[in-house]
Amino acid sequence: ETGVTQSPTHLIKTRGQQVTLRCSSQSGHNTVSWYQQALGQGPQFIFQYYREEENGRGNFPPRFSGLQFPNYSSELNVNALELDDSALYLCASSQAGGPGTGELFFGEGSRLTVL
Amino acid sequence: AQSVTQLDSQVPVFEEAPVELRCNYSSSVSVYLFWYVQYPNQGLQLLLKYLSGSTLVESINGFEAEFNKSQTSFHLRKPSVHISDTAEYFCAVSDPGNTPLVFGKGTRLSVIA
Lengths: 115, 113
Prior knowledge:
The complex is a heterodimer. By secondary structure, chain A is mostly beta strands.
């Protein structure tokens, strides 16, 4: 059984640039959630995708957007990067029933540094 | 909206000593509660969860947590810790149904030989 994989693992961008982070969900999972974990903080919910539709969003501005593909893999896009966007971005997959059932499987994250 | 408070940001403890990591959540009629562990440079792993039923839940590596509705708490305990337990521990809560997890800020457990 393949776990959740994320790419890239590390990247550095400058303010104002755009970034795309990718996530392959665990086999058999159809729901993907993205979380932002700033240094010294707990993960914060960005949004969730179920069957290619966004079906939940946290308190993040529209410059944070995403996609889910037919194979349930997902992308997180962030436009107009700001210094405060520096964080570990975690992808989590789950089966229908979503985060409320607690069966979230996390990838190891993409660490974004904005200079 | 739900919120989670982890009262201790860092907990140092000697090997083989007991430990308790505290977690309180905002009140709700019903909740799901979780503890996740994050080892250095890794993602989060589910340690244990409470969805319903017995208020005492256990993990395979000796941790346990007890859901206390009256105190809105879900403290994590282990009677004897090992060096390998050194990690960041996150408490999380959600409302039943397809709602996102709300995490606490984490507690860094450092086990000292």
